Amino acid sequence: MVLGNDVGGARVTITDVASGRILASGLQQGEAGDQNQIMRTPRMMGESLYSSRASAAFTATLELTHPILVDIAAEGPLAYPGSVQRVTKRTWLIPGEDMTHDGMVLVLYGYIVRIEHPKSGEPLIAKDDVMLRASIRTLSGAPVRPHGDWDSRKLHIYGEVLIGDQVLERLQMFYENDNTGFEAPFFVPPFKDAKDGITLRVVAADPASGNFGVGQSRYPVLSERLPKKSPTP
What we know:
The chain is mainly β. It has one helix at 35-40; strands at residues 10-16, 22-28, 68-76, 85-93, 111-117, 124-125, 129-138, 156-163, 166-172, 174-177, 181-187, 198-206, 211-219, 221-222. The longest helix is centred in the N-terminal third of the chain and has 6 residues, at 35-40.
């Protein structure tokens, strides 16, 4: 699928390799593309995959007098800075030879991993039982879930509780539903061990496809609640 408006699109830059001069730059905007056409429809080799239906693209017109070697770079999704990836392709551009149909396709690898609960920076109470919830999507914004086009059963998805750089606990995360995403319970460490707070990290990894994503947030830890005293008779 394509990085479209739903995820902030992508920034594209075309640079002259010889001089380092930027020839064109701008945002890829539009829709993520037709999922049936891209994911499920058989096609012949060389047949257009993205441009046959409305989908996001960046278009530029360059006035060239001779063949030029360029680097075409793309980075996104721009609406999720923590998940931004970057890729570059080097190619020749030739005067009068337009890139038609799908043009130059640049592939970005990764996932948008967001910790939904607890909210980033929310104080946690030492020794409390807390539910960690996270959403996982492709860079184009499509949900990752069991039995979907992006099947979570093929991924390694887990959470981690850290103090500093030390991993205290690894959490096996399970898919609950579209509203809550993936979740796992954990205990907040004692205050004496986490006076500077903790970090929660969620990892989504698919080594077979080369897609990896990480989401993490820091949280202050407050001393545990003291039991209420019974009133004196």
